[in-house]
Amino acid sequence: MSLRRLSFAIQHTRKLHRSLYFSAAEMARAMTVTFLGTCSGGGPNESRNCSSLVLDCKLANGALWMVDCAEGTTRQFAFQPPDTPSWLKPNSVTKMFITHMHADHCMGIIPMLRNILYPPSIDPNAFVPINPHPKIEIFGPAGIRTFVRSIMTMTLTHTADKYVVHELLRPDDVPTPCDPPEVMHTNEVAGKDIWCSEDGFWREFTIGRSVFGDVLVDAGPILHRDPCLGFIFREHEEPKRKIVILGDTYDPSPIIPLCMSPSLLIHEATDAHIPREIAPQHRRTPEKVLHTALARGHSIPQMAGEFAKTIGAEKLVLNHIGSRHVCSFPAPRHDRDSRLLVIREIERQATEAWGSGRHAMAAWDFMRVVVPAPESESMRQNDQNRSSSYEHVYADVGADGLPYVNKKRKW
Ligand SMILES: [Zn+2]
Ligand SMILES: [Zn+2]
Known about the structure:
- The protein has 411 residues and is α/β, with parallel strands linked by helices.
- The protein is 23% helix and 26% strand.
- The two termini are 23 Å apart.
- This is Ribonuclease Z.
């Protein structure tokens, strides 16, 4: 192993053992992203479920938003480490954003709906007050409405609450009709057909109200082997944080105008070349790895790092980690697990291409990333006796103390 790789691995492995604390006041203002599934479509595997993550923008009533919803997502809520601060509840999810229609990103939607929507009464004569407003909104590409409607129908699913699906449509897409009303599922409310603007983007197509003001959501196209979206969640007022979450991609450049200078970029890294001195079973050349990744519409860590550099991201997290037998990168179980070196190598490749002096992180299931709001002077002074107000949250600390947070590293 080269000295450079070895020193990088040792340096960052040591840093796993450092902790970073956030005060309760800081956590009350922080935006967080919790990964419920971090593997590519070859999964799930022993340590990773397929794609889904939960966004906490500190919205009114504790509402949460979700991006992608793979099979098994509902169960992942139950599998959160018991000492997780701010335990996430499926019932709190009010909006779901689906990047694309591949099965590893949307097959968990119906089980989530069955969990979130109240079941019908067993007594046919009982009066059940049905809320005419949908309890959950789903946003996604053309076809998502048909997908949800068909499976709700075919699984004979009936609920007391309503749901709605809005489609983000491109000019050549065929919308799924909601008219006449008989075509809809009985628990469905007619959704909006949201056509992209002339430059191909969906700007501010939905909104949430947080403690700081409005949180706006934009979407734009990214290149994958089938139509795919990236989502941008941004605060309208100060501190104007911006979180960019991309679906699967081999080239996200079409979305660049929407996502410059984000506080956090989440980018896929499905495949990676791992030198044989780190993992003898990985025998493919760097060229072969790149060729295969591109041919399947995916990225390698360097591409994620280069994109983070292009848009000037403040933090970079790698997601959709390879899970097929020739490119399998399971999350290590503990800090002495030799597979940790593989993950560190993936992070090293992205970190070098990023060139920001900060450390890219590869996501693992239940990892929580904190995007804090800058502290005001008065808050800083109030925090003189921080030790008494600390929420006990642990963090992996990157090169400059980046607050990647989890109560306990699970791997
Ligand atoms: Zn995928
Ligand atoms: Zn895909």
